[in-house]
């Protein structure tokens, strides 16, 4: 025994020499003290087994070694020393002696480790404490959790102002609590409580890391408590809720009201904690009575509604339904209404949730369906100021109402067949309704097989195909015939999107049941999948909404709605768009283009003025086409302007280059040809997106490929192709919109371009002002030569609008990136204004990007922008003679684009109400 202690004491007499040889870890501030001779927990089991773990020696056996060690090593003097290097060197030597395998008695070795632990605690270094305890655990049968918690308490009990509390001290409590979870839950709760106390003293990034650890342990403790207090699912029995007069229910209601008073003005974190507390009481089926659980779950639901947490609300409703025999739909309706009234849920969210509830209730014939629908309709009326959302919700309300009409018709048909079973018309109508509207083919096919008189589009009778489809095991040939017939019938004019989807699904199902499909079968199945993918949810809503209402004209843009949405712009906007399109149609050339400087040849007695530069015919044709496409006039849709769109698209395709400039539309007619190409290519991609005409896919892809080749590697675009390393925000904004449209249309793109564009916008944005510059950070937008005096650049934020719109298209939100709000706030200081002859503030390039960007931002940004833009454009539209419907080219770029440019841009501004889907 004395040999080890004497050697240790002698070692401390020459600390420099020994420290140099044994403690290089401290010279570099490494946390690990377990040198090579000390096996760690990370060693292989076989290696750890070489060090036998023995019981901890009784206190009497280790008292003498401890006293002798302290005497020989003068530990009181080391502890009081301010020399951290000496303290650490002593700690290493104590560890080495305690971990020695030289045959020293266990009592002596344990005493060394105990003293090392005490020294680590005094040094207030949790990482050292953990290392010492790990060494003790490797050799003795100790309770690691108890030692960790005891040491952490000692360190925490002596606060020091010299430095912030390290997060590693919190981690000691966290580890102790985690180890005690299974064996002693109350001890784990105590460790969690102490960890939270220490956490309040942490600062900076350490506090962030420690908070995550504490939350993780809190979650695990809560899970264990729930397991402890919850009956197994097999033992749960649904029961009626206790009577209203139950004293326990009243007690919980009183406590909840008091809790709500205390929560007023508190941060969201306090409300979340209350949600967890009340949820836990409701889930404690073993501990709490039925009255306590029922009211606790209702209290938790109320808080979830006030927080707008629909996920938690759904889980609580499911739990309430699991424990008690309740009308879940009625309770859900009450909670949603309460959440909307308290402001926890936005009106739009509440309205959609109630509509979804009405649809679910309708499926069960519950009277709650009508009540929820009435609530949703009433909430929608409170959103009248937001025209786009009001109109969109109107469609969804109509869609649910159509479900009521459908259900009523189904019940009437069933009643008619009960009265007169042989009534063929009723049977056929019910069969089609069940198959195409509800997709209940097993119930509907027998009715069609017996009574259908309809002829399918391929000449087959519906009765014949239904009989084939009703056979238990049709042959492969029959399956092919059934699938082909239903698919062909899906193309019948007059079918709604819902009915087309049902027929295509049935056809797809039948093809997939062919046991040995041929290559042609697989190809047909792939085509069916594409056709199904082409039926959007917006189409479904529109056709459902129109089910019990007069049909609207088949119009609409990329995300356009019906007439109700078109009227969302208010008085004058719909007629202004129609007048603008009519003027553009009347000034289109016979070959399909819009001629910048010769459009006046199509005028009546007094020619229109406002010629532009002839080199921009490609770009102007693209702009005009975008105006028509945005109003729902597509190449394959029969509208008054179908021929206008077709001829314009044809002219663009015919003017597409081959060879070196393959895909470039119109050639290099001017130094800014990339702008013209970008706008024309965007029109091609939108035309393909809307029409899905296969003959447009190739040209659109070639136009996109040219843009991809023109991009600077890892960045964006400017005027050159191939790129020369220069970038600007203006042309990049058009390219972002083009590529997003191409992606939506299913064309091939390089998504790395998105990252490059965002990088450029970040690089050019002055975060202090929110302004995005042109080619330099935060600079004002460009102006044509000699135009800066008349149209001061400071009056426009066109490039800021480009950046905001591009960021929105690429998925950024104000919550993810505060620059979006900074952009929008800056744009609010420069709203659209067109005051008679004073055109200094007119900048249609700014307005067309700003209108879309602010619409997608919504809220106050859109409201203020719209209130300024709408009257400016409606009032400024020409209403005299052959100019009627156009806008004068009086902005900075008017001489370049002329009247075609100004009219197309203004129409695009006024289509924003229904062109985009606001997320």
Notable features of this structure?
0% strand, 919 residues, two-stranded antiparallel sheet, 42 helices, globular, single chain, 63% helix, mainly alpha, 2 strands
Provide structural commentary.
The chain has 42 helices and 2 strands. It has 919 residues and is mainly alpha-helical. The chain has a two-stranded antiparallel sheet. The radius of gyration is 38 Å and the shape is globular. 42% of the residues are buried. Mean pLDDT is 81; it is low at 1-51 and 542-567.
Low-confidence stretches: 1-51, 542-567
Helix content: 55-70%
Count of strand segments? 2
Please state roughly what percent of the residues sit in beta strands, choosing from under 5%, 5-15%, 15-25%, 25-35%, 35-45% or over 45%: under 5%
The radius of gyration over CA amounts to 38 Å
Biggest sheet features: 2 strands, antiparallel
């Amino acid at each position: 025994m004395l040999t080890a202690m004497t050697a240790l004491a002698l070692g401390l007499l020459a600390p420099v020499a020994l420290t140099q040889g044994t403690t290089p870890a401290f010279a570099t501030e490494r946390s690990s003290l377990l040198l090579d001779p000390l096996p760690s927990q990370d060693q292989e089991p076989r290696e750890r087994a070489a060090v036998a773990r023995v019981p901890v020696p009784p206190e009497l056996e280790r008292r003498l070694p401890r006293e002798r060690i302290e005497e020989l090593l003068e530990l009181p003097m080391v502890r009081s020393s301010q020399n951290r290097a000496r303290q650490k060197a002593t700690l290493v030597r104590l560890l080495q002696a305690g971990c020695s395998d030289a045959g020293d008695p266990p009592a002596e070795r344990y005493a060394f480790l105990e003293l090392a632990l005490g020294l680590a605690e005094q040094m207030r270094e949790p990482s050292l404490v953990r290392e010492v305890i790990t060494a003790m655990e490797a050799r003795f049968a100790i309770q690691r959790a108890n030692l960790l918690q005891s040491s952490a308490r000692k360190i925490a009990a002596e606060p020091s102002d010299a430095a912030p509390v390290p997060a590693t001290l919190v981690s000691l409590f966290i580890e102790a609590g985690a180890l005690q979870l299974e064996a002693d839950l109350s001890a784990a709760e105590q460790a969690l409580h102490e960890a939270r106390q220490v956490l309040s003293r942490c600062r900076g990034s350490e506090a962030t890391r420690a908070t995550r650890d504490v939350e993780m342990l809190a979650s695990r403790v809560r899970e264990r408590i729930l397991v402890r207090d919850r009956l197994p699912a097999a033992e749960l029995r649904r029961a009626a809720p206790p009577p209203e007069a139950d004293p326990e229910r009243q007690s919980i209601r009183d406590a909840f009201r008091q809790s709500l008073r205390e929560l007023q003005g508190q941060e969201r974190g306090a409300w979340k904690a209350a949600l967890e507390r009340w949820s836990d009481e409701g889930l404690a089926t073993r501990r709490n009575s039925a009255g306590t659980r029922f009211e606790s779950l209702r209290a938790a639901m109320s808080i979830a509604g006030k927080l707008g947490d629909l996920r938690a609300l759904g889980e609580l409703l499911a739990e309430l339904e699991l424990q008690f025999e309740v009308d879940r739909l009625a309770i859900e309706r009450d909670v949603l209404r309460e959440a909307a009234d308290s402001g926890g849920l936005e009106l739009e969210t509440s309205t959609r949730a109630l509509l979804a509830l009405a649809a679910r209730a309708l499926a069960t014939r519950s009277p709650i369906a009508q009540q929820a629908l009435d609530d949703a309709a009433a909430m929608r009326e409170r959103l009248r100021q937001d025209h786009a959302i009001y109109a969109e919700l109107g469609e969804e309300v109509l869609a649910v109402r159509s479900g009521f009409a459908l259900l009523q018709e189904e019940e009437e048909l069933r009643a008619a067949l009960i009265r007169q079973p042989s009534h063929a018309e009723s049977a056929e109508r019910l069969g089609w309704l069940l198959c195409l509207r509800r997709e209940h083919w097993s119930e509907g096919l027998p009715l069609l097989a017996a009574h259908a008189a309809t002829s399918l589009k391929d000449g087959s009778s519906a009765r014949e195909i239904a009989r084939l489809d009703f056979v238990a095991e049709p042959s492969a040939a029959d399956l092919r015939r059934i699938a082909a017939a239903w698919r062909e019938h899906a193309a019948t004019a007059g079918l709604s999107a819902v009915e087309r989807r049902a027929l295509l699904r049935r056809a797809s199902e039948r093809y997939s049941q062919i046991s040995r499909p041929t290559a042609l079968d697989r190809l047909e199945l792939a085509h069916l999948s594409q056709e199904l993918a082409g039926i959007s949810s917006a189409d479904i809503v529109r056709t459902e909404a129109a089910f019990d209402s007069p049909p609207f004209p088949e119009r609409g843009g990329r995300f356009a709605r019906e007439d109700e949405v078109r009227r969302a712009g208010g008085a004058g906007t719909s007629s202004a768009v129609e007048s603008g399109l009519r003027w553009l149609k009347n000034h289109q050339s016979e070959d399909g283009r819009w001629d910048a400087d010769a459009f006046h040849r199509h005028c009546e007695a007094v020619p229109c003025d406002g010629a532009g530069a002839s080199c921009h015919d490609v770009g102007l044709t693209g702009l005009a086409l975008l105006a028509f496409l945005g109003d729902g006039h597509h190449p394959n849709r029969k509208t008054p302007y179908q021929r206008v769109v077709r001829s314009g698209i044809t002219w663009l395709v015919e003017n597409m280059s081959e060879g070196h400039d393959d895909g470039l539309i119109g050639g290099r007619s001017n130094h800014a040809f990339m702008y013209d190409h970008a706008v024309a290519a965007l029109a091609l991609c939108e035309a393909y997106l809307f029409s899905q005409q296969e003959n447009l896919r190739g040209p659109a892809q070639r136009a996109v490929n040219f843009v991809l080749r023109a991009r600077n590697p890892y960045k964006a675009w400017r005027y050159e192709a191939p790129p020369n390393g220069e970038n600007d925000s203006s042309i990049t904004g058009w390219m972002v919109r083009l590529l997003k449209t191409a992606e939506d249309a299913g064309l091939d793109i390089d998504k790395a371009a998105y990252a490059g564009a965002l990088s450029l916008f970040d690089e050019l944005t002055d975060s202090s002002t929110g302004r995005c510059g042109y080619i330099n950070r935060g600079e004002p937008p460009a102006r044509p030569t000699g135009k800066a005096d008349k149209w001061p650049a400071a009056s426009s934020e066109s490039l800021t609008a480009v950046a905001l719109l591009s960021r929105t298209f690429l998925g950024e939100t104000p919550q993810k990136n505060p620059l979006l709000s900074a952009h929008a706030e800056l744009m609010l200081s420069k709203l659209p204004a067109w005051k008679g002859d004073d055109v200094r503030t007119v900048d249609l390039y700014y307005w067309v990007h700003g209108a879309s960007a602010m619409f997608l931002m919504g809220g106050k940004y859109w409201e203020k922008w719209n209130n300024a833009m709408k009257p400016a454009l409606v009032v400024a539209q020409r209403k005299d003679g052959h100019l009627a419907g156009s806008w004068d080219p009086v902005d900075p770029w008017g001489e370049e684009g002329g009247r075609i440019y100004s009219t197309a841009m203004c129409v695009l501004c006024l289509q924003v109400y229904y062109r985009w889907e606001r997320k």
